[in-house]
Amino acid sequence: LAQVFQLEVREHGALALWALAGGTQHQQAAVVLQVGLRLIIDMLLASSDKLQFVGCHAMAAMAREGRAHQEQICREDGVAPLVRLLRTPRTTERTLLATVSALGALCVGVAHVNTRLSQNKVEEEQAIPELLRLLSTHANPNIKVEAACTLAYVLLKNHEVQEKMMEKDGFNYDVILELLEHPDRAVRLRAGYALAVFAYNNREQQATLAQAGRIAVSDLLPFLESENEHEQAQAAFQQMVVLSGVFRDGEQVPLTAQGLSVLVGLLSSSNLDSIVLASELLASLAHTRAGLPIAMVTLGAMEMLTEHLFSSADTVREAAAVALGYLSFNREAHRMLLVSCRCRPGLYRQLMSSLGPDARISPDFMADFERQQLIGLPAL
């Protein structure tokens, strides 16, 4: 139906497909991969807002499936139609928001690892000036804050693109800092996340934010004390851990400890989405500052993540495996995981089978386990 000539029939077909995709990433990816990239691009190029809207969401779902799909989208000219929607005044707000989100999804993957090919392609297609325009001038705060997040993804750990933007377009944090004071709670939280991504593994940007002196610990307390576990996790990661060095009214070490305690505590939540989010954020933090992995180990993250490898939910297993993979590069975590694999038959196989193609795990850990298996050491 999505491929027939009549526009109304195509719209109904596309909306039906997206309804079938449901609300989870795995369901959406299964449908999107069946649809195929060519048809998604055709939706983006259509004159129908409904087709454009579904096309943007489908593109984002495909991009979230990993680096291989992100790079395929770039190679097959999937970025240009998205940038065209940014520029077109006729693009509706809901489709514009979906477009901005899709561009961000193209540039970042598992554990906040950037996809350089996508970032460079987005820059080449002149998306950055359009994102800056939306951030500065658009009336809708949700579009403004999403533009900030996508800009952060485009620049993440890509010094070449950062330099080009500063040379041609210029940039400062004033608008994002203003969004931290917005009446809408969701906008404030998302603005903090954008700042956290800008500062992620980037000492220069952390220093710039610290000099601004406009981010206070008190801004975060409503989220950290919230009954909403999503807000707790986001605040703990985004502001308390990544931005802990830029607050004007707090010390880095206790703020970091508090943030990590919140995230590790959420691993024991009864809500599967909270466990997945906490695991994903811990994976991102495990390859930032040197002291964070051992702090996670001390707080008991290893034991809880190991148990989650046997969850009935594939999203929980995969998120836990990614976090354990990054932690395996730490000597103490490496030792603990090795002992667990020797003591619990099937654990190593469960870990390796749950790791996706973009995950990382220490080659030394794998070699040590294989060596112990070869020697036939008994369980400890």
Automatic annotation (TrEMBL):
ARM repeats lie at residues 77-106. It comes from the Eukaryota. Gene3D superfamilies: Leucine-rich Repeat Variant. This is Uncharacterized protein. It comes from Petromyzon marinus (Sea lamprey). The lineage of its organism: Eukaryota, Metazoa, Chordata, Craniata, Vertebrata.
